[in-house]
Design brief:
This protein has about 625 residues and is mainly beta. The protein has six helices and 33 strands. Strand 17 and strand 18 form a beta hairpin. It is globular.
Length: about 625
């Protein structure tokens, strides 16, 4: 199933936007221009239709996730243009994402408007998020620090919690390769003024040997190369209620508990718990909508390999909390002009306990304010924004962006945008024992982009050219045995995406070509391929559905400067509505059983099949 790209703008959790989005789900699945009228909420922090924004953005809704039968965020994002996602091994292992060739910490991940960012590494492990909890995902490419502050060098990915779409219960059970077992129960309900959804899921697997670097070692003190099992349990709840015709409140809670083995001592393992909770409300005046939201992201993890006689200090325990208060306002001056403004206050605490030391970075706070505006003048569209961040660690940062678009006709628009962004140093960079440097400066980038977007009754397409220059990138300096602001990069690229219906087959194509260059060494950046593309086909036949996803990418360099070969994988999926209440599903990944590598020393999955039975009582 193609995760149909659309070009969007938005805010955080707006129930009114979700209702409009649901009305367009059938159009979204067919990927026709009606999708251009879908309301989205990330690219400008205010509700807009897809066609109204200049940002290069993709939307993946709940219906598309279910048709794809993806079992993790890795599979969902894999075929999205400009998005490179990788993981350290198979399912259950750390999963990170890079937008437009920027470092993994240079992509901001939000959930229901709240930052999902490790208090130690400054990155996000997408493995923590279960697909059963997701209503939709919005991906905004390009510099967005003028809206969201730190980390938005390459763009923003926002994940929205699943909502109560219709009353009822769905139970799903699945089984597959590596003795994998999946169970999910989801319940939704509604009243005249409120909706809710609660979802519980659990998955476990015997796994496979995650690392291959130890496979040829022998002797009493060598790493075991047995299968590395994992388990994952998740719970989510979301609800919203209209207090009056103009006032509403909302709440969300997502929690994930993960446990996995890795190669090491007698029985090395990693346990992690992550939770994110939000509560807030909004009020709509005649021309102004104001929203106040509070959210907390909490992460605890324990990694223990201290039983390994060669790694007596290989022990890590982390605890981090991020509290964020957000005030958002939308002033609709008229149907052609809109102003968005707001403020954020963030407080974070992080503690990292190691076998050889520790650090405690507490009460790190930041206050931010932003302002952006949009205006239509004839066939022209003008956008501009600015944001100021005041951080008690590194001082202040001022970021901004601007764009102009022009509708050549009712179907075709050209655009040009530019902006700058920054990424604050992580606590590991600042304070890691024997390594960190508290004087590090934020990483900075500047991006320019040209876009061509096309909407027609039978197809939607876009072509975007971009260049991002990043300075003060934090990199390891062997001369001082620690991090330093010494790296520079330039990424020049083009993204193309096209979706249509050919002979009743939903067809989607995405292609990305980029030149990720290290400006110091003039070599390609590590772990960033220069070319990747995908083809997605889906067809309904009677009570059945069939689809495929084909993904290919070019070679890339590992962190040691050695080549990692390119590869291609094929996934097949099918579904059959056995009765009005029972549906059968199957998905096979890596159908051709390709042997490939994403990260040096880590194995990838061979052929992997999952089969599901869904029961939805009438």
């Amino acid at each position: 199933m193609k995760f149909r790209p659309v070009f969007i703008a938005g805010s955080t959790l707006l129930p009114v936007a979700a209702a409009v989005a649901q009305d367009n789900m059938q159009l979204a699945e067919a990927f026709v221009p009606g999708l251009g009228d879908e309301i989205v909420v990330t690219a400008s922090r205010s509700a807009q239709t897809v066609k109204e924004t200049l940002a290069s953005t993709s939307v993946i809704n709940r219906e598309q996730i279910e048709r794809s039968q993806a079992r993790n965020v890795y599979q969902i994002l894999k075929t999205t243009p400009g998005v490179y996602v990788r993981r350290n091994g198979g399912r259950g292992n750390q999963t990170t994402v890079s937008l437009r060739g920027m470092p993994t910490g240079g992509t901001l991940i939000l959930m229901d408007g709240i930052r999902l960012e490790s208090g130690t590494s400054g990155t996000t492990n997408l493995q923590q998020i279960n697909v059963d909890q997701i209503d939709r995902i919005e991906i905004v490419r390009g510099s967005k620090s003028s809206l969201y502050g730190s980390s938005a060098l390459g763009g923003v990915i926002q994940i929205f919690s699943r909502k109560g779409e219709k009353d009822g219960i769905t139970v799903s059970v699945g089984a597959g390769s590596d003795n994998t077992r999946d169970t999910m129960i989801s319940a939704s309900g509604s009243t005249q003024s409120a909706v809710y959804n609660a979802t519980v899921s659990y998955s476990e697997s015997d796994g496979y040997d995650v690392q291959y670097g130890d496979d040829t070692q022998t002797g009493p003190n060598t790493y075991p190369f047995d299968d590395d099992s994992y388990s994952k349990g998740d719970f989510s709840f979301s609800g919203s209620s209209d207090l009056t015709d103009n006032a509403e409140i909302f709440v969300t809670l997502n929690r994930s508990e993960n446990s996995g083995e890795f190669d090491g001592g007698i029985k090395p393992y990693t346990d992690s718990d992550a939770s994110i909770a939000t509560i807030g409300g909004q009020y709509r005046f005649e021309k102004i909508t104001t929203k106040l939201q509070y959210g907390r992201y909490k992460e605890d993890a324990l990694s223990d390999d201290s039983t390994d006689p060669r790694n007596t200090f290989n022990y890590g325990e982390l605890h981090s909390v991020l509290d964020q208060t957000i005030w958002e306002n939308v002033f609709q001056i008229n149907d052609k002009t809109k102003i968005n403004f707001g403020a954020e206050y963030t407080v974070s605490d992080a503690e990292y306990i190691l076998g050889f030391g520790r650090y405690d970075a507490d009460d790190h706070d930041q206050f931010s304010g932003y302002l952006n505006a949009r205006m239509e003048l004839g066939g022209f569209v003008l956008e501009a924004g600015v944001r100021h961040d005041d951080d008690d660690q590194f001082g202040s940062e001022l970021t901004g962006d601007a764009g102009i678009g022009y509708w050549i006709n009712e179907q075709l628009r050209i655009s040009a945008t530019a902006g700058n962004a920054f990424k604050a140093p992580s606590n590991n960079d600042l304070y890691f024992p024997g390594y960190g440097d508290p004087t590090l400066l934020p990483e900075e980038s500047k991006t320019a982009e040209l876009g061509l977007d096309f909407y027609r009754d039978d197809s939607v397409a876009s072509l975007h050219l971009f260049q991002t220059k990043a300075d003060n990138l934090i990199a390891y300096n062997p001369a001082i045995y620690g991090p330093e602001n010494i790296a520079e990069s330039k990424v020049t690229g083009v993204e193309f995406q096209w979706g249509t219906v050919l002979y009743g087959v939903n067809t989607g194509i995405s292609m990305t070509y980029q030149r990720p260059i290290d400006e110091v060494t003039k070599e390609n950046l590590a772990l960033i391929p220069s070319k990747f593309a995908s083809l997605d086909l889906d067809k309904d036949i009677g009570k059945g559905s069939f689809g495929l996803s084909w993904y290919v990418q070019s070679k890339q360099l590992d962190n040691a400067g050695e080549d990692i070969a390119g590869y291609g994988t094929l996934a097949l999926r099918a579904g059959y509505q056995l009765t009005p209440e029972v549906k059968l599903r199957a998905r096979i990944d890596n159908v051709l059983d390709k042997d490939y590598i994403e990260i040096t020393d880590y194995n990838t999955e061979g052929l992997f099949a999952m089969f599901f039975v869904d029961y939805t009582p009438n």
